[in-house]
Amino acid sequence: MEDPRLLSAFIDNLLSRLFCLVEEKYNLYKGFEGDVTFLMRELPMITSAIDGQLLGHDDHILRLTVDELRHVAHEMEDCIDHIMYDASLDQQPWYCKYIKSGRKRKSRCQLGEEMQRLRSRLEEALQRQQRYSVPRSSPSQLAESSLDQHVPRDHLVGIDAPLEELLVQLVEAESQPKQLKVISIVGFCGLGKTILARELYNSEVGKQFEERAWVSGAHGDPGKLLSDILCQLHKTDLVNSNVDRFSIDLCNYLNNKRYFIIIDGMVSDQWSIIKSAFPRDVSSRIVVTTKIQSVANACSSANGYIHKMRRLDEKHSKQLFLKNACPGEYSDYLQPDSAAILKKCDGQPLALTTLGHFMRKKSWPIGRDCEDVCSQVRLYDLQSGDDTMDRMHQVLIHDFASLPSHALKACFLYFAMFPSDHPVRAKRLKRQWLAEGISAAIKFMQ
User: Fold this and answer.
1) Run of H or E including 289
2) pLDDT at residue 416 greater than cutoff 70
3) pTM above 0.90?
4) Separation between Cα atoms, residue 413 and residue 105, nearest integer Å
């Protein structure tokens, strides 16, 4: 069955070709305005449904629908290629048509019938999915902190330096004006943003604030975000209301109080909506963790601070891997040859921890085992049934599905064409994107 991630990007490629038909105003397009317009409206809805499956809205009916859409999408690509080929040929001089006449061309009537058939198949697939789908409750969000919870302090590696850096930002300096400061911690999933924020929250400096709250921003709902903060501070449930009402209530409650609030995993630019809820004339602190740089920039634009998460160096990477891979105490002469895994993980704490746990369950991590896991890590991920591997897999899928456009997803997936651990020539990659029409989709999105 087609991987939904591949189909989602593939459908976006079809959209880019439809954009070309519209923008270039090919003569042949004039006979298919209704069909092309219908496809341009429907295909984004399909990609949204596929993203829903990736983010956890998963059921068997949707999987079957995705499989059927795969076949329709490939036939649509063939049909669009025929239309674009014939349209471009009609615009060529007569001698070019003579040279290229070896390829059998479809008549306008045949192309029209093909477009109608594909339109009918697409409508039937979507109606079938709606007819047999079962109502389901909203899925739980995959929080970025799903792998960060319940990590003992002595198991943390390489956190002292960034923690000290951020503690300085929490402290109220006499030379600074008494204003609200928003500290953003930005970086990819699995770098330890939530762990770092939790250490700040539980530190002695963090406990000195008069009011404290920890909420999740992964749902992307400003009203729920403010409601959650109010519930933690008030210790009571609130009646349903709108964002403006929550903002006024929270602002009144926090007035003249020094507060410390952590918003974990913010995924959209909610700050412009909720910032009026936080009084700015007291030396309060808000910490936002996010994987999106633009969100961090928006939150910390005025009197703020942005901390970019960095990968672990080689020393800390080896230390973290061995803590998870080797049972009990380890000594220098017992340390395995972990160079292959350290190179593969490239300082990513999530990858180091996951592979360390996996190796610990297998056997003592000798050099050959490390190399074997590195060369077949994807196979182990799919077949091992290991909970840690599965959680890492889900975090990576969530990272991919949350990319802002399907054009970016298609560009990202093109790296699978190249061998692992080898440099990729930028010009070659760009030519591949141009040949597939992905650049047109990117231009349209911009």
Assistant:
1) strand 285-290
2) yes
3) no
4) 33
